[in-house]
């Protein structure tokens, strides 16, 4: 029997009050937002609390919303799973656009180590306290973050592609 979403919401509001908000079902997954300074504490609580028992981090990723207000331009999304009750939840925290950073959870979920590195590599989100926060897929010399919306979709300097193969003529 899955944990009731109302129970999770009540438990979170009792423990964290105004640090958690916007509880809703999104595509059959219970979701809510956490302030960036409390996200580590919330995730630790969800894992260690016997009633919630979210012992598995399914995914951690970043999202860039350049059109949002400055304080909500980046988002880190955590997907947690309670295997016993077969319940999934999504925890989101929004970050400042000029200096996106949040506390690491790599000591809470060891699997988040590489996920946080990947999120840093593609979005430039810094995970404070991470043991080895460096690029994981892109070159170390790269100065930009390719999944940010301001990153150009195509590199005009590439010589290894022919626009004809992409349905475009060379004059476009």
UniProtKB/TrEMBL annotation:
NADH:ubiquinone oxidoreductase 30kDa subunit domain sequence ranges: 33-155
Cellular compartment(s): Cell membrane
Keyword hit for Signal: no
Top-rank taxon: Bacteria
E.C. number(s) listed in UniProt: 7.1.1.-
Topology versus the membrane: Peripheral membrane protein
Reaction equation(s) it catalyzes: a quinone + NADH + 5 H(+)(in) = a quinol + NAD(+) + 4 H(+)(out)
Role: NDH-1 shuttles electrons from NADH, via FMN and iron-sulfur (Fe-S) centers, to quinones in the respiratory chain. The immediate electron acceptor for the enzyme in this species is believed to be a menaquinone. Couples the redox reaction to proton translocation (for every two electrons transferred, four hydrogen ions are translocated across the cytoplasmic membrane), and thus conserves the redox energy in a proton gradient.
Family: Belongs to the complex I 30 kDa subunit family.
Assembly mode: NDH-1 is composed of 14 different subunits. Subunits NuoB, C, D, E, F, and G constitute the peripheral sector of the complex.
Name by which UniProt lists this protein: NADH-quinone oxidoreductase subunit C
Source organism of the structure: Flavobacterium fragile
Lineage: Bacteria, Pseudomonadati, Bacteroidota, Flavobacteriia, Flavobacteriales
